[in-house]
């Protein structure tokens, strides 16, 4: 599609929580968490809301793109942890950046949300309906974790990442595919609002924390990463040598290492930063993309593969020709 990424940004809460800090109140250890997941620390909100993180990431992406809020005509926030049921987080971002003529809405596709957002926005830009879109993955997952459950709460972190998409002369976003596998919806769940009305009394047992089948998602994720890379290489007549970076969702380094081992891919090409952030769901890919961009690792013409996977179950992948 004739769409390119022209700016990126990220924002995380100020509070860093190390594995050792978790082991002061959970039966866990830095050794277990790091060896099973590659995670060393994560950022956990002590007051920053999802919309505040998204707004800050958006402002940085605008600055990076040399655009201002008025230039943005589409805002999509991918999140499973919005501040409010309504308004959408995207509307709060819209107001804060002054994108007064934009269409703004949230999408729920868990850890695949950012790639889903890129897909939706690219269709609108490619069809010339809109010129500049702001896509944000933002989460405050710490709101939906059981902090007594060591098998879940050690894995996740809070944060937001943003990217701005604009029209391009060349096809810079290629082979984008987003798939949902609803029959596996039980693998990762978090209840929404309680059914509570004059006919249904409050349920004492009601809880809205994440629960998941980690092993099943692990296998699903390995398969998704392997198949997505192969599909993209085949569709574009490329070999893995032509790819500069793969940016997978940052759930667990062992998922990525399993792909590398099975396929013999060069490990250096797989960008990993879960050691610092943990799993930030929809935010993980745009945070990683922004790190690559701001650290000067992306050069014009580079080929990047983005791959998201997670709750739904959902997955999504795309080939990006980097051209700012
Ligand atoms: O964003 C997408 C959504 N999620 C994912 O992508 C997650 C994908 N799955 C995974 O990353 C891994 O399956 C986990 C990290 C969640 C779990 O790793 P695992 O190697 O599958 O461990 P396990 O669940 O089989 O647990 C092994 C042992 C158990 O003890 P027993 O039954 O062997 O005695 C657990 O109770 O490790 C225990 N355990 C822990 N021990 C210390 C589980 N969590 C912890 C912990 N600290 N935090």
Automatic annotation (TrEMBL):
UniProt-recorded Gene Ontology molecular function terms: 3-oxoacyl-[acyl-carrier-protein] synthase activity; beta-ketoacyl-acyl-carrier-protein synthase III activity
GO cellular component, one term: cytoplasm
EC class: transferase
Span of domain Beta-ketoacyl-[acyl-carrier-protein] synthase III C-terminal: 233-322
Region annotation (ACP-binding) ranges: 250-254
Acyltransferase is among the record's keywords: yes
Keyword Lipid biosynthesis in record: yes
Catalytic machinery residues: 111, 249, 279
EC number(s) stated in the UniProt entry for this protein: 2.3.1.180
Domain Beta-ketoacyl-[acyl-carrier-protein] synthase III N-terminal: 105-175
Keyword entries, A-Z: Acyltransferase, Cytoplasm, Fatty acid biosynthesis, Fatty acid metabolism, Lipid biosynthesis, Lipid metabolism, Multifunctional enzyme, Transferase
UniProt superkingdom: Bacteria
Compartments (UniProt record): Cytoplasm
Record-linked Gene3D superfamilies: 3.40.47.10
GO terms for biological process, alphabetical: fatty acid biosynthetic process
The protein's annotated pathway: Lipid metabolism; fatty acid biosynthesis
PANTHER family hit by this protein: 3-OXOACYL-[ACYL-CARRIER-PROTEIN] SYNTHASE (PTHR43091), BETA-KETOACYL-[ACYL-CARRIER-PROTEIN] SYNTHASE III, CHLOROPLASTIC (PTHR43091:SF1)
Domain notes: The last Arg residue of the ACP-binding site is essential for the weak association between ACP/AcpP and FabH.
Subunit structure as annotated in this protein's UniProt entry: Homodimer.
Homology family: Belongs to the thiolase-like superfamily. FabH family.
Function of the protein: Catalyzes the condensation reaction of fatty acid synthesis by the addition to an acyl acceptor of two carbons from malonyl-ACP. Catalyzes the first condensation reaction which initiates fatty acid synthesis and may therefore play a role in governing the total rate of fatty acid production. Possesses both acetoacetyl-ACP synthase and acetyl transacylase activities. Its substrate specificity determines the biosynthesis of branched-chain and/or straight-chain of fatty acids.
Protein name in the entry: Beta-ketoacyl-[acyl-carrier-protein] synthase III
Encoding gene, per UniProt annotation: fabH
């Amino acid at each position: 599609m004739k769409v390119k990424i022209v700016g990126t940004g990220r924002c995380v809460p100020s509070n860093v929580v190390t594995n050792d800090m978790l082991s002061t109140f959970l039966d866990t250890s830095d050794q277990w968490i790091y060896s099973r997941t590659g995670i060393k620390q994560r950022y956990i909100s002590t007051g920053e809301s999802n919309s505040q993180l998204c707004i800050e990431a958006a402002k940085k992406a605008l600055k990076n793109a040399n655009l201002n809020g008025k230039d943005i005509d589409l805002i999509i926030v991918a999140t499973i942890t919005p501040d409010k049921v309504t308004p959408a987080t995207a509307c709060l971002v819209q107001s804060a950046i002054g994108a007064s003529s934009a269409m703004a809405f949230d999408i729920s596709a868990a850890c695949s949300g950012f790639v889903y957002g890129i897909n939706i926005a690219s269709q609108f830009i490619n069809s010339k309906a809109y010129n500049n879109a702001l896509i944000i993955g933002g989460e405050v997952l710490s709101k939906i974790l059981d902090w007594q459950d060591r098998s879940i709460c050690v894995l996740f972190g809070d944060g937001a990442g943003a990217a701005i998409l604009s029209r391009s002369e060349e096809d810079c976003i290629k082979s984008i595919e987003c798939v949902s596998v609803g029959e596996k919806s039980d693998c990762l769940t978090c209840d929404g609002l309680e059914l509570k009305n004059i006919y249904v009394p409050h349920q004492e047992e009601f809880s809205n924390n994440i629960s998941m089948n980690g092993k099943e998602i692990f296998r699903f994720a390995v398969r998704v990463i392997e198949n997505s890379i192969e599909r993209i290489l085949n569709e574009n007549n490329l070999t893995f040598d032509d790819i500069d970076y793969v940016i997978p969702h940052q759930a667990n380094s062992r998922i990525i290492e399993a792909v590398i081992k099975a396929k013999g891919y060069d490990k250096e090409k797989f960008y990993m930063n879960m050691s610092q952030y943990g799993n930030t769901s929809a935010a993980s890919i745009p945070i990683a993309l922004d790190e690559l961009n701001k650290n000067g690792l992306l050069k014009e013409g580079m080929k990047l593969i983005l791959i998201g996977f997670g709750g739904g179950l959902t997955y999504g992948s795309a080939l990006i020709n980097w051209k700012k």
